[in-house]
Write a structure and sequence with these properties.
248 residues, mainly alpha, Arc Repressor Mutant, subunit A, Four Helix Bundle (Hemerythrin (Met), subunit A), 2 domains, two-stranded antiparallel sheet, 10 helices, 75% helix, 3% strand
Length: 248
């Protein structure tokens, strides 16, 4: 998986994340059909995202007939539910799961060792950054709020704390892996995330390299097992559909 592929995937996942947030905003407010959404500046501020990503998300929702973008006027709600361009989305999900599994394997190879390095090399400030990120993930999960940005910050803080400039080059790939896992699993394993993040954090704070390595391994094994099960399930569905086509 090349660098450009990683960048493209990360950009796509971020756009999809903003799409989900716009849909949630429309349903939660709630907006009625024909009502105008807040302007771009307000939405960028609300979602903490750049203008180009927001525009891509809005254009995607327009193609799914949920919003209508009127030049010089604003964005209006066209439907309360987006039209799924690919009703079963099996190929799309399968491709994402395949990429997610590849990234999960990579993470299992490197992140446990990075956590061990962080336990040994992190200074007091870096240890507090890891703890604060861990606390924010747990707080947002417990409150039922979006925790993705803090999850990414948690893993990035550990990589920075490892004190290796070569390892830091992995941050974009790890960020993408976290985003992709959250995207394809619909934020499952919340309890496991809280538990294993806390175990990793406690080990790093205690300067326990072996404990940090084992806790990170457990965290990533939970993730990979879920992805593997989802991948098998989607393969079974695809086989079932192909069988149905043969007899139709």
């Amino acid at each position: 998986m090349g660098e450009e592929t990683i960048k493209g995937l990360k950009k796509k996942l971020l756009r999809e994340e903003i799409e989900d947030k716009i849909i949630a905003l429309i349903k939660k407010t709630p907006y009625e059909i024909g009502m105008r959404l807040p302007n771009e500046d307000a939405l960028c501020s609300l979602f903490d995202v750049g203008r180009s990503t927001l525009r891509e998300a809005l254009k995607s929702l327009e193609s799914r007939h949920m919003v209508s973008i009127k030049q010089g006027s604003g964005t209006y709600v066209e439907s309360l539910s987006p039209v799924d361009i690919y009703p079963l989305s099996i190929l799309n999900v399968r491709d994402k799961l395949s990429a997610a599994l590849d990234l999960a394997d990579l993470r299992l190879m490197v992140e446990p060792h990075i956590a061990a390095m962080a336990a040994v090399k992190a200074d007091d400030k870096q240890r507090m950054e890891i703890k604060n990120s861990c606390d924010l993930v747990e707080c947002h999960i417990n409150d039922g709020e979006d925790y993705l940005r803090y999850d990414i910050a948690f893993h990035s803080a550990i990589i920075h704390a490892a004190g290796n400039s070569a390892v830091e080059q992995l941050i974009p790939m790890i960020d993408t892996a976290v985003m992709l896992f959250v995207n394809v699993t619909s934020r499952c394993l919340k309890a496991e995330t809280v538990k294993t993040h806390r175990a990793v954090t406690d080990a790093i704070l205690s300067k326990d390299a072996y404990g940090a390595e084992m806790a990170m391994s457990m965290h990533l094994i939970y993730n990979r097992e879920m992805l593997s099960e989802m991948y098998k399930e989607n393969r079974s569905k695809k086989v079932g559909l192909n069988s149905s086509d043969e007899f139709s």
